Protein backbone atom coordinates (compact mmCIF):
# COMPACT_ATOMS: atom_id res chain seq x y z
CA UNK A 1 0.00 0.00 0.00
CA UNK A 2 2.56 2.58 1.09
CA UNK A 3 5.37 1.21 -0.99
CA UNK A 4 7.45 0.26 2.05
CA UNK A 5 9.09 -3.11 2.60
CA UNK A 6 7.53 -5.24 5.33
CA UNK A 7 10.85 -5.26 7.15
CA UNK A 8 10.59 -1.48 7.56
CA UNK A 9 7.21 -1.81 9.25
CA UNK A 10 8.30 -4.63 11.52
CA UNK A 11 11.50 -2.79 12.39
CA UNK A 12 9.46 0.26 13.37
CA UNK A 13 7.03 -1.89 15.35
CA UNK A 14 9.87 -3.57 17.26
CA UNK A 15 11.41 -0.19 18.16
CA UNK A 16 8.28 1.20 19.85
CA UNK A 17 9.05 -0.16 23.36
CA UNK A 18 12.55 1.34 23.22
CA UNK A 19 11.16 4.71 22.15
CA UNK A 20 8.62 4.66 24.98
CA UNK A 21 11.31 3.77 27.52
CA UNK A 22 13.58 6.57 26.28
CA UNK A 23 10.71 9.06 26.47
CA UNK A 24 10.00 7.99 30.07
CA UNK A 25 13.68 8.47 30.96
CA UNK A 26 13.60 11.94 29.41
CA UNK A 27 10.49 12.87 31.40
CA UNK A 28 12.11 11.62 34.60
CA UNK A 29 15.22 13.68 33.85
CA UNK A 30 13.15 16.81 33.30
CA UNK A 31 11.35 16.26 36.61
CA UNK A 32 14.68 15.89 38.41
CA UNK A 33 16.07 19.03 36.78
CA UNK A 34 12.96 20.99 37.75
CA UNK A 35 13.24 19.79 41.38
CA UNK A 36 16.89 20.83 41.59
CA UNK A 37 16.12 24.19 40.02
CA UNK A 38 13.22 24.80 42.42
CA UNK A 39 15.31 23.72 45.42
CA UNK A 40 17.96 26.26 44.46
CA UNK A 41 15.23 28.93 44.25
CA UNK A 42 16.12 29.44 40.61
CA UNK A 43 19.74 30.28 41.38
CA UNK A 44 21.02 28.02 38.62
CA UNK A 45 20.17 28.57 34.98
CA UNK A 46 20.24 25.61 32.63
CA UNK A 47 22.23 26.02 29.45
CA UNK A 48 22.80 23.98 26.31
CA UNK A 49 20.99 20.74 25.52
CA UNK A 50 19.50 20.45 29.02
CA UNK A 51 17.57 23.64 28.40
CA UNK A 52 15.81 21.99 25.48
CA UNK A 53 14.51 19.24 27.80
CA UNK A 54 13.07 21.71 30.27
CA UNK A 55 11.52 23.89 27.57
CA UNK A 56 9.97 20.94 25.76
CA UNK A 57 7.95 19.80 28.75
CA UNK A 58 6.78 23.17 30.00
Quick summary:
The chain is an all-alpha fold and 58 residues long. It has 2 helices and no strands. It is rod-shaped, with a radius of gyration of 17 Å.
Protein topology:
Layout: H1 6-39, H2 49-57
Helix pairs in contact: 1-2
Shape estimate: rod-shaped
- Could you tell me the number of beta strands? 0
Look at the structure and give the mean pLDDT. Answer: 80
Q: What does the largest sheet look like?
A: none
Task: Report the radius of gyration as a whole number of Å.
Answer: 17 Å
Order of helices and strands: HH
In whole angstroms, how far apart are the ends?
39 Å
Poorly predicted sequence stretches spanning 5 or more consecutive residues: none
Strand content: under 5%
Share of helix among residues?
over 70%
The secondary structure category is: mainly alpha
Describe it:
- This protein is mostly helical.
- The protein has a domain at 24-58.
- 74% of the residues lie in helices and 0% in strands.
- It contains two helices and no strands.
- α1 (6-39) packs across α2.
- The longest helix has 34 residues, at 6-39.
- The protein is rod-shaped and about 55 Å long.
- The termini are far apart.
- 0% of the residues are buried.
- The model has no long low-confidence stretch (mean pLDDT 80).
List descriptors.
2 helices; mainly alpha; 58 residues
Amino acid sequence: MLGLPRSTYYGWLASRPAVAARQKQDEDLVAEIREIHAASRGAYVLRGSTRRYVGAVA
